[in-house]
Write a structure and sequence with these properties.
There is one protein chain. 38% of the residues lie in helices and 14% in strands. It is an alpha/beta fold and 103 residues long. The chain has one domain.
């Protein structure tokens, strides 16, 4: 069994806040953030590369430039959405919740 433990997933709902940042998104300092709300795309890539399970987490750098309230909201949305994804596909996804998300 191959488990990808370095798998970041940011949902579209968290992306709405992140896209307001001066740092992340198309044409900005870092085009890093690209939400992938379609789990079927992720599952297809997992199959293509032989990944059996992904441990989903939020990337900490995505919080740079945000105050505590916005960072906490991004984490709450991300954790809730990743948790829902894991419940929908329990044999494919597990969740890592970062302590950074509990600011």
């Amino acid at each position: 069994m191959i488990i990808d433990v370095f798998c970041h997933n940011l949902s579209a709902s968290a992306g709405e806040i992140i896209s307001k940042s001066d740092l992340f998104g198309g044409g900005k300092a870092s085009p890093y953030y690209m939400p992938q709300p379609d789990p079927e795309v992720r599952l297809g890539l997992m199959e293509k590369y032989g990944i059996d399970v992904q441990a989903l987490s939020q990337s900490a750098p995505i919080l740079f430039g945000f105050g505590a309230a916005d960072a906490a909201e991004i984490c709450r949305l991300s954790n809730n959405d990743n948790g829902t994804l894991c419940k929908s596909y329990p044999k494919k996804f597990v969740i890592f919740v970062s302590s950074l998300c509990w600011m």
